[in-house]
Amino acid sequence: ATSWLLEGESRSKDVVEENFGLDAHIWQPNPQLLAGNELARTTLEDAKISALDFKEKYGHEPSLAVITLGSLERYTHGVRRKSIYSNDENSWFNKTAVGKSNGFIVNEINLPESTSEEDLLSHLYSVRNCDGIQLMWPLPPHINAAKVYNSIPKDRDVDGAHYIGQMELDSNCSPMAAVTPVAVMDLLDDNDIDVENKSVLVVGRSRIVGSPLAHMLRTAGANVFVAHSKTSKQKLEEMVL
Questions:
Q1: Could you tell me which residue ranges the Tetrahydrofolate dehydrogenase/cyclohydrolase NAD(P)-binding domain spans (predicted)?
Q2: How many CB atoms sit inside 10 A of residue 226's CB?
């Protein structure tokens, strides 16, 4: 292949052109996309160490209850995606296996989409013996999201559903932060991206992603604009341009 690339009148046999004369933009990753693979790997290693410390301190492995209503999009074509992107030990599609390989117990509870709000609350109360509770989003429209998320004890709220409310009441407190926004901030920090005095657009205002992320960015000194389902196309274009 190297010989073929170096053939031709425009190439000297003694000099190799940068990138073999090919347009690197065709095959290189988009510089505007941040790869989180290495950060994810080190985060899992830290989680494994934390799980060992927890077991030594409390005498049992940390446990997490994951409750899902209906069939979430993350399970669509899950087998094919799982085989392409990751193995069970670090896959979004198999939280039980991820937990087992990293020293904590995951109890996945999959409920029908038709589950009533009362039954969902009963399940949330029944898993309070777990060290952490994660209620998967989105919820069916007949479920009062604020009510059920508020029923999760603050000390077991691994998704940080209480984060915004607690920070608004007392900015000096240290509530469990929402995990996806924390991952975003860690990724920015890992790539030495300083958002202070920068204009940042956050798409979405959910209580576990958009709203807490906007809060964290403001705390970091960014000028934050939030777009959501009620934002007009004209206003969105103004924000982007």
A1: 179-234
A2: 17
pLDDT tens for 59-76 read 999 999 999 998 755 455
Under 8 Å between Cβ of 164 and 207: yes
Could you read off the pLDDT of 171-188 as tens digits, one per residue? 555 567 888 999 999 999
DSSP assignment string, 102-124 = HT-EEEEEEE-TT--HHHHHHHH
Read off the tokens for 241: 């341009």
| Confidence (pTM) | 0.75
Which of 67, 217, 37, 218 shows the shortest CA–CA distance to 139? 67
Q: Would you call 70 exposed, middle or buried from its count of C-beta atoms within 10 A (0-12, 13-18, 19+)?
A: middle
- Return the CATH architecture of domain 36-158: 3-Layer(aba) Sandwich (3.40)
Q: Is the dihedral of CA 194, 198, 204, 208 positive or negative?
A: positive
Distance CA 180, CA 213 (A): 8
Give me the pLDDT at residue 5, please: 58
Residue 68: strand pairing partners: 110
